[in-house]
């Protein structure tokens, strides 16, 4: 199904919505700021203008009343001291009028009323107060009281009426300012409510838009991906919504197609591999059966050939002893060839019989002390060592799990080879050592003989493979093949170390006992917990040297080195 591509992208829609909301909120914020400033001005007018004006208007009335009362008292008593309230009230009136005029910039009507009060108060003083004071001073109290008439009281009532009008005008202005404060406060609240509504509506629109443009398309895409993940790799993925999701759906569908194609290839490859495995298994079974038959054949053939071969060898030797010197020289030579061939054939058959028996006739693995095995090997090779004036040494060797006869045969073959392949006029020296490497013992047999070229290092372990003629070095060429088979039977490997400076070093591995591995790990942990050596001690010991730890620690595998005299655990077999 071809997905429907939306018009605007998700980014564009979100940015547009946020822009509109931002513009509205900024406009509302500006209106609220202006209204708040106006509200603050109106509150200042109420608190700092109309309020003080109202108080000052009352003070003005009190000052005028003090003046009128002082005039009446002076007219009655004629005492000049009674005029002090008049003069103080007049001074207070002037001060109050000055203070009020400082607050009347925005209130012209109140200023007009104040001027009326000033005019009427001035007229009252000119027509009533001043004449009463002058007449009382000149003619006495009776004349002064005569001037305080009903008309004079009416004239002061006009002054009082003007003050009342002034107070009513101030009260009206104050009420108007208070109404303005309430109105601006209400408008400010409305603006805040509108801003909150804008935020709420924008949030609701954003949620609805996210649900429509993001959540639903993603949910649909996830459902389709889940179907593919459950195994329906042929299910096409179609996405709806903004262009970003359309492209995402196309990418996911392309990935699905790639996975489906790769999976088809994997399935085809798996089928081929299964077929190949079946063929290999059949071949392995056939090879196992063939090897078993060949081993059985070799054993039977070598065993059955013993009797006729012994008969041939016996009669050839009998013929050689009885008719030696009675025939011509060529006949004696032919008889010698026949005897030598029969003997070599007998040795080959015996070695082949021993090779075929490895792993077939087993006595079970037991713990074998290789030091005792080396004692047996020394006894077996004593005659050869006496003849070659050879020296056999070994460091303390480990205890391993294996078959003692096979391990004895293994080490005897290595020692015999080292003695046999010696250099002329150089007494052979053979040294056996061992070291623990990981979970294996690496055992080395090193001599000072003729050595082995690196290109022949792997050929010497092939059965019947010889690097020298039988006249130069006698043998059947099966000894190292027996060594390799014994090592592999015990779970190890064998190789020739071609990096030694002199002679030959054959190394092989045998699995170590768990106790030896744990002891080595404990020793490493103890060494790491000790205090660090001094700088001089560290510089005196190279990092690649391993100091002798115990009778089982590693020693340099040099055939021309012998253990130091008196070293505990070292053994020496020297003959000659």
Strand content: 5-15%
**Which structural class do you get from the secondary structure elements?**
alpha+beta
Shape: rod-shaped
Helix residue percentage: 55-70%
Amino- and carboxy-terminal Cα gap: 97 Å
Number of strands: 8
In N-to-C order, the SSE pattern is: HHHHHHHEHHEEHEEHEEHHE
Low-pLDDT residue intervals, each spanning 5 or more residues: 1-6, 531-576
Number of helices: 13
Radius of gyration over all CA atoms, rounded: 64 Å
Main sheet, how many strands, which sense, barrel? 6 strands, mixed
Mean pLDDT: 77
Order of strands in the sheet with most strands:
6-7-5-4-2-8
Q: Could you explain how this protein is built, in words?
A:
The protein is 66% helix and 8% strand. The chain has 576 residues and is of the alpha+beta class. It has a 6-stranded mixed beta sheet with strand order 6-7-5-4-2-8. A hairpin with a 2-residue loop joins strand 4 and strand 5 (440-447). Helix 5 packs parallel to helix 6. The radius of gyration is 64 Å and the shape is rod-shaped.
Summarize this structure as a short list of keywords or feature phrases:
576 residues; 6-stranded mixed beta sheet; rod-shaped; disordered N terminus; disordered C terminus
Q: Brief description of this entry?
A:
The protein has 576 residues and is of the alpha+beta class.
Write the layout of secondary structure elements.
Elements: H1 10-77, H2 84-101, H3 108-139, H4 141-147, H5 150-229, H6 243-323, H7 329-357, E1 366-369, H8 370-380, H9 382-388, E2 391-394, E3 399-402, H10 404-420, E4 429-437, E5 440-447, H11 479-489, E6 494-497, E7 505-511, H12 514-529, H13 535-540, E8 571-574
Parallel strand pairs: 2-4
Antiparallel strand pairs: 1-3, 2-8, 4-5, 5-7, 6-7
